[in-house]
Design brief:
The protein contains 8 helices and 2 strands. By secondary structure, the chain is mainly α.
Length: about 350
């Protein structure tokens, strides 16, 4: 057996060329270096090949590892695409869920509104708060009428002042060109110029009055009414979910219904908290609005009265003192039109 092994070893050590003759084995430095590299650091998978078949197989069975790397890169790219697609699908599902909830909420509120309108559904009522809201709406309508009339008065009075100004200029021109009526045209021209000056002062006071009323009506009151609108919407939603919970509670108590009752109870509590919070906001805003309205109107009505009285009494000094009292600045001299009219 030893001789057989030795003969096999001798046979393996002697290469045979293509003619069947023995020859010397050339030194292969690269093979030695590769073996040393394997012994030191192990195989480098980026530079090795996978052999398909047994030892001595043809080169057709060799698969470069670069093709495997490319396949991995393709798989990674596919994974990224799948991740992006899943993200997009998640966003779409979230949007659909939002639309579904909005549709369900709209259906419940519409059903509640129709039930209330036809007297079949109950609604939550705060009698004191409802009365205050109705007073505010009525007050706003009346103040809007005051604002409309004050603007009309300002427009008419502005046209009168402009006419007086033009008439004074005409009288002054005729005074220069009509020697026989120079004095008569002269003092009429002075009178019209004085009236024009006082009229511009009064316009400044009325302009300030109109601006303050406009802020009170279209900003302060409107802000409170917007909060009231949110409160009324919250009240409708609260009653809609309250009615839904009551209807479910009256039905059978199986497992499915109990799960729906629990979900309805949670929604009811959310709507109740929202309703009570907005009701508190409306109460506070109504209180501060009433205080602000009294303060503003007290000042503006006093200004309007003093300015009108001084003008028609011909008391120029008192008219000017009224503007100083309320820190009102007149429009620049020579302006053809009050600035507030230009903004209309």
């Amino acid at each position: 057996m030893t001789d057989s092994i030795m003969s096999k070893a001798a046979t393996m050590e002697i290469p045979i060329n293509s003619n069947g003759d023995t020859g010397t084995l050339p030194e292969d430095d690269s093979l030695e270096q590769d073996l040393q590299q394997v012994m030191v650091s192990g195989p480098n998978l980026n530079e090795t090949s996978i052999v398909s078949g047994g030892y001595g197989g043809t080169a057709e069975g060799i698969i470069p590892t670069s093709s495997i790397k490319g396949s991995n890169m393709h798989h990674s790219s596919s994974s990224s695409s799948m991740t992006a697609e899943e993200t997009t699908r998640g966003v779409a599902v979230e949007k659909l869920e939002t639309v579904r909830k909005w549709g369900l909420n709209t259906y419940k509120c519409t059903k509640q509104m129709i039930s209330e309108r036809f007297g079949r559904g109950s609604r939550t009522v705060d009698l004191e708060l409802e009365a205050q809201i109705e007073v505010l709406r009525d007050t706003k309508r009346k103040y809007e009428n005051v604002l409309r009339l004050a603007r009309a008065l300002t427009n008419h009075f502005y046209n009168m002042v402009q006419t007086q100004h033009a008439l004074g200029d005409t009288f002054a021109d005729l005074s220069q060109k009509s020697p026989e009526l120079r004095d008569e045209f002269g003092y009429n021209a002075e009178t019209q110029k004085l009236l024009c000056k006082n009229g511009e002062t009064l316009l400044g006071a009325i302009n300030f009055f109109v601006s303050s009323i406009n802020t009170l009506v279209n900003k302060t009151m409107e802000d409170t009414l917007m909060t009231i609108k949110l409160y009324e919407n919250a009240r409708l939603e609260f009653d809609a979910y309250r009615t839904d919970l009551e209807e479910l509670s009256m039905g059978p108590k199986d497992a499915v219904t109990m799960a729906r009752i629990d979900a309805a109870q949670q929604q009811y509590q959310v709507q109740k908290d929202k309703y009570e919070r907005l009701r508190s906001d409306v109460t506070i805003k109504l209180k501060f609005l009433e205080e602000n309205k009294v303060k503003v109107m007290h000042k503006q009505l006093l200004l309007f009265h003093n300015a009108i009285s001084a003008y028609f009494a011909g008391n120029q000094q008192q008219l000017e003192q009224t503007l100083k009292q309320f820190n009102i600045k007149l429009r620049p001299p020579g302006a053809d039109k009050p600035s507030w009219l230009e903004e209309q």
